[in-house]
Amino acid sequence: MAETDRLRWDDRYAGRAGAVAGLPQLFARYADAFPTAGLALDVACGPGAVSAWLAGRGLTVLGVDVSPVAVEQARQLAASTGVGDRCRFEVADLDEGLPPGPRADVIVCHLFRDPRLYPAILSRLAPGGLLAIAVLSEVGAAPGGFRARAGELVAAFACLDTVASGEGGGEAWLLARSKGDR
Ligand SMILES: C[S@@+](CC[C@H](N)C(=O)[O-])C[C@H]1O[C@@H](n2cnc3c(N)ncnc32)[C@H](O)[C@@H]1O
């Protein structure tokens, strides 16, 4: 990622109030589908709202984001909600791929889209693991280079068992489970 883009994210986060731990609204009604133990990966974690929620549920979490400001906010949120010991956050540029690590029982990728990462996300998912991904979509919005084409998520993750999915209003999302036992 260009340094100017990273600085833009830093600026955006620097001016914001702290995040509150929680699942994004899209996934909140499926909260019970998320495991209560194991390893979670929060891709482009931002200020760590989902990471802190996952850790509060019992998972050990790695969150990665290109913005050092967001990562610092994520560390503070985890500490202030009492889950700092179950969270680790790394500054990483996902343009260079997913940072290496073990397979995850949960992967969350909320409002960050890079189709080049889809194969790496798939192979990082442990057997029986849960993927929760939401991206901006062209469905219900004007076409744009950073928006998913119609059916993109369902096609990219067709080898998973879909728990629920949706597309419309400019967003696409998928909750799906890898085949096999945890
Ligand atoms: C719309 S925010 C979503 C943040 C978080 N997932 C959430 O739902 O609150 C997009 C995030 O992607 C991060 N991001 C953008 N490009 C990135 C890249 N190349 N590598 C890592 N993170 C990136 C930004 O810093 C930002 O935190």
Throw out a few tags for this protein:
alpha/beta, binds S-adenosylmethionine, 182 residues
Structure description:
With 182 residues, this protein is of the alpha/beta class. It is 27% helix and 27% strand. It has a 7-stranded mixed β-sheet. The longest helix is centred in the middle third of the chain and has 13 residues, at 68-80. The chain is globular. S-adenosylmethionine binds at residues 1, 9, 44-46, 49, 65-67, 70, 93-95, 110-112.
Distance between the termini: 35 Å
Largest β-sheet summary: 7 strands, mixed
Approximate helicity band? 25-40%
Report strand %: 25-35%
Bound molecule types: S-adenosylmethionine
Note the overall shape. Answer: globular
Order of helices and strands: HHEHEHEEHEHEE
Spatial arrangement of strands, main beta sheet: 3-2-1-4-5-7-6
Mean pLDDT rating: 95
Kindly name the structural category: alpha/beta
Number of strands: 7
User: For the CA atoms, what is the radius of gyration?
Assistant: 15 Å
